[in-house]
Amino acid sequence: MQKSVTKEAKTVDEAIRLACQELETDIDSVDVEIITEGNKGILGIIGNKNAVVKVTPKVTIDDIIVDFLRPIFEKMEITANLEITHEEDQISVRLTGDDIGIVIGRRGETLDALQYLLSLVVNRRSEEYMRIIMDVADYRKKREETLIRLANRVADKVARYRRNLTLEPMNPYERRIIHSTLQNHKHVETQSTGEEPNRKVVVRYKHASGRS
Asked: In the beta sheet, which residues pair with residue 131?
């Protein structure tokens, strides 16, 4: 919830300045509601009325992210530090702290679900589509490295024995890593098969399309 400040002064500009001063921000970072513009009264003396404004800091994407995640973490009874970084069309949210492994879940399922929901919340209030990447203690980076090693190891087996191999079910993000890693491999090719959430990657020998 954004804190609003109501200020009264002789002019609207002065009331806004006082409000921004209290909020420790500038006019470009706030929304201003003019409650009354005030007037100088008769002859500038009788019936003078001050201007009254209500000033509220503008909601940023970072505010939206924090406001969405904090209550969830409180319900999970964990304390997480949020590091939010912005790129052209991507926002990365990195979580660190003690006992936050629960946010990852089985094979990253909880993390994926939170990332999906956060993306919906952010893009509902953003003028341009932003890709949201959420990570916990570099889990995704470590998982990507593990999957790349797995892909290369399986590809070597398929090439050596000329037999197709099917990997365990993976989410779309993990399947993309396998496909990307092996897309230029000389002896194998990949394809996805099955239905979510049990969709799998099949690593196939290029010259043995009819074999299993």
From this structure: 90
CATH topology of domain 5-57: Defensin A-like (3.30.30)
Would you say 192 and 176 are in contact if contact means Cβ atoms under 8 Å apart? no
Is the link from the previous residue into 197 a cis peptide, with omega within 30 of 0? Answer: yes
Domain layout of the chain by residue ranges: 5-57, 61-137, 141-205
Return the exposure string of 155-190: e unless at least 16 CB atoms fall within 10 Å of the residue's CB, then b: beebbeeeebbebebbeeebbebbbebbeebebbbb
**pLDDT tens across 50-74, in order?**
888 898 888 888 989 999 999 999 9
In terms of Cα–Cα distance, which of 49, 45, 46 is closest to 8?
Answer: 49
Phi, psi of 4 (to 5 degrees): -105, 150
- Tell me yes or no: is domain 61-137 CATH 3.30.300.20: yes
- Any long-range contacts for 8-13 (C-beta under 8 Å, 24+ apart)? 8/50, 8/51, 8/52, 9/50, 9/51, 10/38, 10/50, 10/51, 11/38, 11/51, 12/37, 12/38, 12/51, 12/53
Sorting pLDDT into bands at 50, 70 and 90, what band is 211? Answer: very low
Q: How far apart are CA 193 and CA 86, in angstroms?
A: 35
Q: 30: closest CA among 65, 8, 59? A: 59
**pTM reported for the whole predicted model:** 0.66
The third-level CATH classification (topology) of the domain covering 141-205 is Ribosomal Protein S8; Chain: A, domain 1 (3.30.1370)
